[in-house]
Amino acid sequence: MPSLAIVVPCYNEQEVLPETIKRLSALLERLAATHKIDGNSRIYLVDDGSRDRTWLLVEDHAAQGWPIVGIKLSRNRGHQNALLAGLFAARGDAIVSIDADLQDDVDAIEAMLDHHVAGCDVVYGVRRARTTDTAFKRLTAVGFYRLMRLLGAKTIDNHADFRLLSRRAVESLKAFGEVNLYLRGIVPMLGYPSAIVEYDRAERFAGETKYPLRRMLSLALNAVTSFSVVPLRLISLLGLLLSLGTMAVSAWVLAVSLHPERVVPGWASTVLPIYFLGGVQLLSLGVIGEYVGKLYLESKARPRYFIERIVGALPADEVTR
Ligand code: UDP
Ligand code: MG
To answer: Which of 132, 210, 211 most suits a substitution to test ligand 1, by most atoms within 8 Å of the C-beta?
Structure first.
């Protein structure tokens, strides 16, 4: 019987948290009753520096004896870091990550567990349809997955961060030294046996999305620059094409100048290339700057998060830290 850990990153989730705890606890109870998991199974709630009552709720529920462990980060570090904090702190043979907002189908966890018992190290939760998302979110998501594939990164379509990882897979994750871990890209790189569980994605149970457009763009940019050097290569290609083009034009200019009566004096041919090339150069510098900035951040190797407090029902074999 494996022991199951469910990791839930929570940022300002006071509206949904009590319901999330209730549903996940009911699931643990049901799975334990059917002998699919053992008694050391826990829900790990990672409070990502919430400014509302999220942490108070976690403490309350822990005191009331729910099967939860609360992990409080010292401040908001973002979804991916909160997730990592939970994954690395969690005990258990199978570790499932799920969002706090109940958009992912809690009951799919049982199917994930079955795959795990059958020998899979990674089980991806994949959305069957995106009918509950806005047309905009759907469109940007499709575009994003297509772009990632084009740039040569292996990601699973319509899979967010709802997945099961075996103990072995989590330990392997620890070996990746990058500060900016993009889990959706890294997990497929682990390469262990994997499976897919499909589920229907619901509306957010309550509260608002914590991923406004700005954050979505930053996640996408992070994903591209973490997994692909294709943009850098495109710059070289653009430079090469422009140089070849300029050579051809030079030859033409030379030919024309042999017949002075056909030369038309004009500023367009002088001024336009200046602006055009200026634009291309700035764009290229910008792309290179993205990667240099990334190198800068990675070279500092700053810690991803600090755990301020841990409360709750730690598994029996756990020594309190
Ligand atoms: N989240 C987090 N830190 C943040 C932003 C979000 O831990 O800085 C959590 C949030 O509480 C939720 C999950 O990440 O459990 C996904 O966020 P959300 O549901 O708002 O994103 P969406 O489903 O709208 O993409
Ligand atoms: Mg959500």
So the answer is: 210
170 neighbors 96 (Cβ within 8 angstroms): no
Hey, where are the domains in the chain? 4-208+302-318, 230-300
Pairing between β-strand 68-73 and β-strand 42-47 as defined by DSSP bridges:
parallel
Does CATH number 3.30.200.20 belong to domain 4-208+302-318? no
Least confident of 10-14, 126-130, 189-193: 126-130
Tell how strand 307-312 and strand 68-73 pair up: antiparallel
Q: Point out the ligand nearest to the CA of residue 141.
A: 1
**Coil, strand or helix at 95:** strand
Element (H, E) at 68: strand 68-73
According to DSSP, the β-strands at 94-97 and 159-166 are: antiparallel
Q: Express each pLDDT in 156-212 by its tens digit.
A: 888 889 999 999 999 999 998 888 888 888 899 898 999 999 998 877 777 777 777
Query: What is the atom index within ligand 1 of the atom nearest the CA of 209?
Result: 20
Q: Give the pLDDT confidence score for residue 321 in this predicted structure.
A: 37
Which atom belonging to ligand 1 lies closest to the Cα atom of 10?
A: 11
User: For the whole model, what pTM was predicted?
Assistant: 0.80
Q: If DSSP codes are grouped into helix, strand and coil, which group holds residue 319?
A: coil
Going from the Cα of 83 to the center of ligand 1, the distance in angstroms, rounded, reads 10
